[in-house]
Amino acid sequence: CTDNFNIPDAAIMVATAKVLEAVGVSAYLGAAALAKISTILSAAASIVTVESRHQTFIRRNILLKL
């Protein structure tokens, strides 16, 4: 991998992950009202549950230890 995200330490990386997960969950929840096709709504619902679990894991297991 040659990507360089200029993240100087783990605390900043975790804080960034926290923000990105929150934005992802909010985006899926906000877009759910616009979904007109049930299969798309079902797919979005399954994705948002996984994103929510990621967010919970980050907040409970990582942020509390920093």
Automatic annotation (TrEMBL):
Source organism: Terfezia boudieri ATCC MYA-4762
UniProt-listed Pfam families: Ferritin_2
Keywords: Membrane, Transmembrane, Transmembrane helix
TM stretches of this protein: 27-50
Protein name (record): Uncharacterized protein
